[in-house]
Description:
single chain; five-stranded antiparallel sheet; 14 strands
Amino acid sequence: MSRTPGGGHALALLAMLIVGAAARPAVAGEAIVKQVTHVIEMFTSQGCSSCPPAEALLTRLADEPGILALAYHVDYWDYIGWRDTFGSAANTDRQRAYAKSFATTTIYTPQAVVNGKAAVVGSHEAKLRRLLEAEGLPARASAANIDLSVVADRLHITAKGAAASPGGQTPVLMLVTFVDEAPVAVERGENSGHTLANTHAVKDWRVLGMWTGETMEIDLPLVTLFGPDKRKLGCAAILQSVTADGAPGPIIAAAQLEFSPE
Length: 262
């Protein structure tokens, strides 16, 4: 059964923009880039007993072609007795921003948002897959697209393609960093005694800048994103529309990069 808390936070977006030169070939063997046709953002908590089945589903979906699966651990279940090791107020803010976009005052865990367009209880696989089958991201040949590469000690991001969608605000380019998998033994709270896999747990998300439809190139130092050890870490770049009142809208394009553990 899903869980519903109270309270609220203002949407906080950290902006950081570094414009760089054109990308050179990526260093072989360092990173694997996955082009994305669907984005699933799962809002979850280690302190919620109904979340493990949803996270198990997210783990399976993360390995499927074209699917970018991200687990945003919220912080509003920490009071139960276990402080989520990946929980953050920023993740809760993003979920509340989606609630604004969907014209609801209710947030809950586990909740899955598909392509920034629709939400469903995260453990309801049949409903989630129907959303995935209904519509994917726009085809790269006819719309905006994102490319990621690693150049020496930098992450290079390129956003290009069709002009920004009319209406609302200017779309934004986001960067999300995540842990591939980080098992955590929960010692207190509703999941006490269980070890949770924490697949694609979001470490940080930030807005890099606004996208006007012109080619946008950004370089970011890898060490500031991942630290000195990049193994079992990854990132995703997401182009997302913004509604007239500033809430996140449909996702326009996305790409995922993960580092080889070798």
